[in-house]
Design brief:
Helix content is 41%, strand content 25%. The chain is of the alpha+beta class. Among the domains are: 80-337, Beta-galactosidase, Chain A, domain 5, CATH 2.70.98.90; 347-463 and 540-580, no CATH class. Residues 53-60 have low confidence and may be disordered.
């Protein structure tokens, strides 16, 4: 075995050992993170569901145990659960006197992808309670005790109100939650009243524990988890967020105005009114379940000032990620809707100022969203029509010049610098801008990216059918394989296929524009649409339908303009006339030619030396 072989085997061995070590470290890190999440989840479960130490047989609720675990609230440790309902045309909220909190939240105008009632909150994991410190260094979560419920009251403005009171065992000392559901609104007024407990609760921050679980609502679980996020807004109006798949913990040390647990098309948001939350700690978890998208466990600090009568007013939003509805709340909650991010963050203004207003206007004219997307596509093409026309004119001029460019390529062959100089001379003499076709396409890019953000996040398209697409907000599968093809998926999306075919037709139609001597430039227009096939196969049908329509319009316009508008003979005559005129060089062009000549001279000198 030679030296090189030995070195190769040593390097391979080192790589293998490194990979095993890294894999073990990753596994240990994942194990520790799972243990941390499970521990936090267990601490925030109802008392009866928390894991008991081995051998703990003290199950009877005797007075000693009640006093140890519940302190002066021991009388509220047991009771009979009662439920009350606040309901309007949009939402139905079922409250329980255990915890004095919402038990279930149903959105009445929406269904799951399976056609079942859509519950935004359901199950024992969902809890909202204060953590009250007890004298024995224990903590009481008010979600574990029974409140005294009030009667449901209907106000003159159409709102409904209910209150829950937790007595401290002393006259005039109690904790009270009041809820008011506004008429025709997704908002619930939620106020915490602390009365006469200034000697029981220490002055400072009191923890409000808010746990929420996002259950599966949509057809595509993968997209749901990609859109399962926690958003928050600080008191200085700064907004930020993270995705549950990418982060499991976040500590917010600054005052917080609101925290939102966002699903793909819905959200639950806690908003502080008058006074902000002092801080927040957010923990998240993605359970190994096909029916749970994600869970969040948020501890919000309420700044209790120690007053004898203290109130902390809040609002809870249970509803859809509808841009107009969220914007009307005037707290920038509409920022949770992904209309543009990253290097393309600027396209959110295209969506806000152009796409959404036009989309809403068209929606007021018809309820057929296939037709709305068609009209929206035509509107967008009218906006960019001047740029499109200039692009086609530039393409026509380049097509006329193609024979002469081919002659230059044959003449100079491998001498790319010489070919470049002569090409620039030809363009200048013919009055052709080589970027004439690129710049219009570049100006159209913000529209294309805006559509990429808008359609998948538009709740208006949710469960709206068109042609063979049952739901325009998800992919339009016409056949499921029953298995997954790498880089493609487990189904066939017909709109994606049509989009790809029309993209290939456009590439074929414009083949004269590409440099046929360059394999990359020659074949890339055909390869690129096929590469995107796997990416768009799982995208919203509305998006691929829009791109398909845009391609069809481009094909028709290009054919019509080339056939009936652009006169190739006239363009050729004009180019020849421009070539006959004395060429006027700009200073930049003169410097460019001078640099190219110097490079050519240096290359000749080097060849002569050889």
């Amino acid at each position: 075995m030679d030296r090189n072989s030995v070195i190769g085997f040593v390097l391979l061995g080192a790589l293998l050992i490194g990979y095993i070590f890294w894999n073990q470290q990753s596994a240990n890190t994942a194990k520790l993170e799972k243990a941390r999440q499970d521990s936090i989840a267990n601490l925030n479960k109802p008392k009866e569901e928390q894991a008991k130490p081995a051998g703990d047989s003290t199950l009877a609720l005797d007075s000693t145990r009640l006093t140890n675990e519940y302190g002066t609230f021991a009388s509220a440790a047991t009771g009979t659960e009662q439920q009350q309902v606040l309901e309007n045309k949009l939402v139905k909220i079922t409250f329980s006197n255990k915890g004095g909190e919402p038990r279930t939240v149903q959105l009445l105008n929406f269904k799951t992808s399976e056609g079942k009632p859509l519950f935004l909150q359901q199950g024992s994991f969902n809890r909202t309670g204060l953590k009250i410190p007890l004298p024995n260094n224990q903590t009481l979560n008010t979600s574990d005790v029974y409140f005294t419920p009030g009667e449901v009251k209907k106000e003159a403005d159409g709102s409904q109100r209910i209150s829950y009171r937790l007595n401290n065992g002393q006259p005039g000392q109690y904790l009270e939650y009041t809820y008011s559901l506004k008429a025709d609104s997704y908002l619930v007024d939620y106020t915490i009243n602390i009365v006469g407990m200034q000697n029981v609760l220490p002055k400072g921050n009191i923890s409000l524990q808010w746990n929420a679980q996002a259950d599966r609502q949509e057809h595509n679980m993968q997209q749901e988890r990609l859109n399962n996020q926690v958003h928050y807004r600080f008191s200085d109006k700064e907004h930020d967020y993270f995705t549950l798949q990418h982060r499991s913990q976040e500590k917010l040390s600054k005052p917080v105005e609101w925290v939102s647990f966002k699903q793909q098309f819905f959200n639950i948001t806690l908003l502080a009114r008058k006074e902000n939350f002092a801080s927040a700690e957010i923990n998240t978890k993605i359970p190994e379940s096909g029916n749970i998208v994600g869970q969040e466990m948020t501890t919000l600090a309420i700044p209790y000032n120690g007053a004898a009568a203290y109130s902390f007013p809040m609002e809870i939003y249970y509803g859809p990620n509808h841009y107009k509805t969220l914007k009307a709340m005037d707290v920038q909650l509409e920022k949770i809707i992904p209309l543009g991010s990253g290097i393309f963050a600027f396209v959110k203004y295209v969506n806000k100022w152009i796409i959404i207003p036009v989309f809403n206007f068209l929606g007021s004219l018809t309820s057929n969203y296939g037709l709305i997307i068609l009209l929206l596509t035509i509107f967008i093409r009218l906006i960019i029509a001047p740029f499109t026309y200039q692009s086609y004119v530039s393409a026509a001029k380049m097509k006329v010049l193609k024979p002469e460019l081919d002659e230059l390529r044959a003449k100079y062959k491998d001498d790319q610098q010489a070919f470049g100089m002569e090409q620039m001379k030809l363009f200048r003499s013919a009055g052709v801008n080589p970027l004439g076709g690129c710049l219009p396409a570049l100006l159209q890019l913000p529209i294309l990216v805006a559509m990429y953000s808008f359609f998948p996040s538009s709740i208006e398209l949710r469960q709206e059918s068109f042609l063979w697409a049952k739901d325009l907000s998800t992919y339009d599968s016409i056949y499921n394989f029953g298995f997954t093809i790498p880089l493609y998926g487990d189904h066939i999306s017909l709109f994606t296929i049509l989009m790809t075919i029309t993209s290939l037709i456009l590439a074929f139609y414009n083949r004269g524009m590409a440099d046929q001597s360059n394999p990359v430039m020659k074949y890339m227009p055909y390869v690129f649409p096929v590469m995107l096939l796997g990416i768009f196969n799982s995208m919203a049908a509305a998006l691929t339908y829009y791109y398909f329509l845009s391609n069809v319009i481009s094909i028709v316009l290009q054919w019509a303009i080339q056939k009936f508008v652009i006169n190739h003979e006239k363009i050729h005559a004009k180019i020849q006339a421009n070539k006959a005129k004395p060429a006027s060089k700009s200073k930049w062009a003169e410097r460019l030619e001078e640099m190219q000549k110097r490079q050519q001279d240096m290359q000749k000198q080097q060849r002569n030396k050889k």
